[in-house]
Amino acid sequence: MFIGERLAELRKDKGLRQKELADKLKVKEKTVSAYENDVTAPSDRIQEEIARLFDVSLDYLHGLTNEEVTYNREQYVVLPKSFTAKMKKELLEYLEFLKLKYKVKQ
Predict the structure, then answer these.
(1) Which CATH number characterizes residue 32's domain?
(2) 82 within a domain of the structure (yes/no)
(3) pTM value > 0.85
(4) In which domain, by residue range, is 59 found?
(5) Listed residue (43, 71, 94, 88) closest to 3, CA to CA
(6) Is 102 among the domain residues?
């Protein structure tokens, strides 16, 4: 998966139109269209802004991984490869419990 395809996917998942994304990136709507259609590649600065905006890693944006790893590494936890989907689900549920227990605001 190339940046363009992943960008279109992220934009649509957030319910943004190309014009809205263009405004956020401070580029023209046709530029976003060109990115999404792999006509042109976004500059490194724009790629970083896209990753920050959608809170995904550059590896995810480039299609090097299918895990939506957060851009903000302070919130990132590496789980052992042996963790099953069920274990991950339980861990997320426990994290939600801890937020409630300690009244942590999101």
Answers:
(1) 1.10.260.40
(2) no
(3) no
(4) 3-73
(5) 43
(6) no
Measure the CA–CA gap between 47 and 50, rounded to whole angstroms.
5
Phi, psi of 46 (to 5 degrees): -70, -40
**What parts of the chain have a pLDDT lower than 70?**
1, 73-76, 105-106
Please state, in angstroms and rounded to a whole number, the distance separating the CA atoms of residues 53 and 47.
10
The total domain count for the chain is 1
Domain membership of residue 9 (yes or no) is: yes
User: For residue 68, which phi and psi values (nearest 5 degrees)?
Assistant: -75, 75
Convert the pLDDT of each residue in 10-26 to its tens digit. Answer: 999 999 999 999 999 99
Q: 63 lies in a domain?
A: yes
**Structure tokens that stand for 10 in this block:** 């992220």
